[in-house]
């Protein structure tokens, strides 16, 4: 299927089922996609820290200069050491708690945007951090969720997670400017 932010979006005004009317026009996901996302995310939620550790390891592999920005992690010189680090686990937990809050409330767009702004603001205090760096997390996120969910990561869920992470990261960039 063509990959587009509005793929399957029914924000035009179709009711999709009981209790599902239209999604907020700011949100590029249809009510059905939101329903599927929340259900599927439960598999990630059970392994939030593992997902976060995988994301950070993959971020540092993709862009090694980002590791230096994490003060308690910068000295760890191998992926094995990173995976065993309590500090990395702690950071993964904080990052994933934010993402979990955003996903659980994704259809309350005011709430989700407010949370996104708060996360963006937290990053302003980190020396050398630039808003564009948020975009580096797209592929690490998708790879990690795919690994954690295994056969629950279907093609349909891939489409939904791609739309979701683009939405979150692009709004983090906007909010951090
Ligand atoms: C999905 C995207 C991301 C989310 C939800 C997220 C979330 C968070 C949260 C909740 C914290 C803790 C803030 C605090 O303790 O005050 C944090 C810290 C931090 N984040 Fe992110 N983050 C994301 C992406 C990134 C990316 C791509 C970078 C790239 C460099 C980054 C760099 C940092 C740094 C350097 C810290 C401080 C770590 C330290 O205490 O040494 N974050 N992040």
UniProtKB/TrEMBL annotation:
It comes from the Eukaryota. The keyword Transport applies. Residues 1-24 are annotated as: Disordered. The lineage of its organism: Eukaryota, Metazoa, Spiralia, Lophotrochozoa, Mollusca. Keywords: Heme, Iron, Metal-binding, Oxygen transport, Transport. GO terms for molecular function: heme binding; metal ion binding; oxygen binding; oxygen carrier activity. Belongs to the globin family. InterPro entries: Globin, Globin-like_OT, Globin-like_sf, Globin/Proto. Residues 28-177 form the Globin domain. Pfam families: Globin. The keyword Metal-binding applies. It comes from Lymnaea stagnalis (Great pond snail). This is Globin. SUPFAM superfamilies: Globin-like.
């Amino acid at each position: 299927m063509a990959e587009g932010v509005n793929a399957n979006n029914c924000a035009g005004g179709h009711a999709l089922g009981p209790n599902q009317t239209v999604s907020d026009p700011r949100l590029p996901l249809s009510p059905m996609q939101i329903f599927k996302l929340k259900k599927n995310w439960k598999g990630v939620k059970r392994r939030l820290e593992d997902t976060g550790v995988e994301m950070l390891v993959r971020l540092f592999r993709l862009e090694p200069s980002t590791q230096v920005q994490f003060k308690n992690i910068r000295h760890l010189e191998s992926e094995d050491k990173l995976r065993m680090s309590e500090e990395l686990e702690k950071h993964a937990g904080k990052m994933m708690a934010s993402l979990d809050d955003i996903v659980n409330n994704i259809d309350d767009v005011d709430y989700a945007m407010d949370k996104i702004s708060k996360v963006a603001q937290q990053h302003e205090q980190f020396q050398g951090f630039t808003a564009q760096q948020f975009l580096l997390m797209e592929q690490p996120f998708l790879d990690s969720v795919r690994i954690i969910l295994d056969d629950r990561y279907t093609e349909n869920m891939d489409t939904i997670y791609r739309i979701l992470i683009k939405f979150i990261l692009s709004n983090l960039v906007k909010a951090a400017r």
